[in-house]
Amino acid sequence: IxxxxxTARVTPSDNSTQSVTLTATLTKGxxxxxxxxxxxxxxxxSGLVEQAKEAAFAELDAIKNDDNxxxxxxxxxxxxxxxxxxxxxxxxxxxxxxxxxxxxxxQDIQVITDKVNAKNEISAxxxxxxxxxxxxxxxxxxxxxxxxAQAEIDKAATxxxxxxxxxxxxxxIDKVQAAVRTEGKWIINDKEATYTGDDxxxx
Length: 203
Known about the structure:
This protein has helices at residues 45-61, 72-91, 95-129, 136-155, 162-175; strands at residues 2-4, 7-9, 18-28, 31-41, 180-183, 186-189, 194-197, 200-202. The protein is an alpha+beta fold and 203 residues long. The strands form 3 sheets. A 4-stranded antiparallel β-sheet has the order 5-6-7-8, with no helix packed on it. A two-stranded antiparallel ribbon has the order 1-2. Strands 3-4 form a two-stranded antiparallel sheet. It is rod-shaped and about 115 Å long. The termini are far apart.
């Protein structure tokens, strides 16, 4: 704060809110009195924007491919989203623009994440069926169902249809005839030539 006669010029700090103490002496004839005032000068708008940018950069930099959750293509797409977001954030002149760029990046990354989760769900469902429980040709059919469904997921423009694709793939997998059948108390695996039931196991 610079005071020149009856004029005061306030220059906000770019880095933080500042408290300034002013002392005024009032005089009337031979009498005088001193008053102290504390004025809070808020941080400048440009400083707040820079803080928002730093926080946004830190949040984007914290995104990692832990345990190789994403494959190379997926992670490359995410890195491109992050780089574009950083470019937009750097160019932003308002906090709202910073927040919008960060929100868009997070939303786009979430779409990729949801797709990965959907593809993994289908793979896990197929694997749980057990290759040993199917004839080779039938297991190949299951593999094709998984591959086709995952390709469809990759092409999906939004996440709205993902669960429908997953449910459809599971239903198609269930339709594939397994080599395992149940007769009475016996579970018979025609491929392995085994049958089990209660405490009995024979070959």
